Amino acid sequence: MFFELIVNKFVKDNSNVKDDTVRNSYGVLGGIIGIVVNIILFIIKLSVGVIVSSIAIMADAFNNLSDAASSLITILGFKLSNKPADREHPFGHGRIEYLSALIVAFMVMLVGLQFIKSSFERIVNPSPVAFELVSFILLIVSIFFKIWLSKFNKFIGEKINSSALKAASTDALGDVFTTTCVAISFLASKFTSFPIDGYIGMFVALFIVYAGFNLVKDTINPLLGEAPDPELVESIERMVLSYDNILGSHDLIVHNYGPGKCMASIHAEIPGNINVVDIHEVIDKAEREISKALKIYLVIHIDPICIIEGEVKEAYDEILSIIEKYDYIESIHDFRVVGEGDIKNLIFDVVIEPSKKLSITDTELINIISEGVKKYHPSYNCVITIDKHYT
What we know:
By secondary structure, this protein is α/β, with parallel strands linked by helices. The protein has helices at 2-10, 20-52, 55-81, 96-124, 133-160, 163-188, 196-224, 230-241, 276-294, 310-323, 362-376; strands at 248-256, 262-271, 296-305, 329-338, 344-352, 380-387. The chain has three domains: 2-224, Cation efflux protein transmembrane domain (Alpha-lytic protease prodomain-like), CATH 1.20.1510.10; 230-305, Cation efflux protein, cytoplasmic domain (Alpha-Beta Plaits, 2-Layer Sandwich), CATH 3.30.70; 310-387, Cation efflux protein, cytoplasmic domain (Alpha-Beta Plaits, 2-Layer Sandwich). The model has no long low-confidence stretch (mean pLDDT 83).
């Protein structure tokens, strides 16, 4: 494939996409290609727009110029996000890539808003568009340029899992659509005096604003703290459970500090009667090996469980029978019985199914479960924590 030839030419060790240096090289390559292609298209379309006096074509030209600026910001974003961690930023500067994409999105919207104004003025005060065959052919050629650029950005974006380059691919595909509309309106101007140029210019400008809005939404989500990649979640949970004496896991939380820069914590359930030193060795090994394999920083908290027999097992089974009627309760964990004599505390966490909407408050749910326990054991007190998924 031609894309792979380009990558092999300019990116050393290109198969090692998890390496920060290699990933940075991919990003810079995608940005440089984007700048070159968009500058060429800007020059072509601006020349055509000025020659034939078409606001729609000039709007499309400046859209390409903003795309070139976007590619430049993408390069800067990759460079800055690859800076090593320092005292002020112990987890590195990876989120700069998201910020750079956000700046690009606002630039795209600004260009669109400017051409909404210009297109409206053209509708109010129309002027003739001079159709020329050579100019029309150049517009058609520019469409194929954008199709190629969209596919190239998609190839690079999927290769290194870059939201910035995937967004650039979508943006380029949108440009294919807008330029096609511009070309159709340009051709139509040959057969009608209706000011279609201004209307198409308005349509293109609105499309640019809409594309910018979607880019803002896509890039702001990881900054706000979106749910982690389901594949990463599944990999962490599966790998943790693969180690000896780890019986279960819960409370997985993943913090995203930029592409390929994640910190995660998880609770691992272990037998309550195991030697502390022995399980400490297992946990240390798991943290080290999983962190290396998944390119994350993993911290594992251990939760001893003693639900084997006797009073604890009996109390645990009673709790399960109480909560099974509530479909919004997914599970319980960290269950233990604390105290001496008749008065004892049942301490546990209740996990709420994330897809269910509760019609009651957390306090009301705690009271319902506590009252159910009181029917079995009036002397038992429940200490319940309502737990939610963070994945």
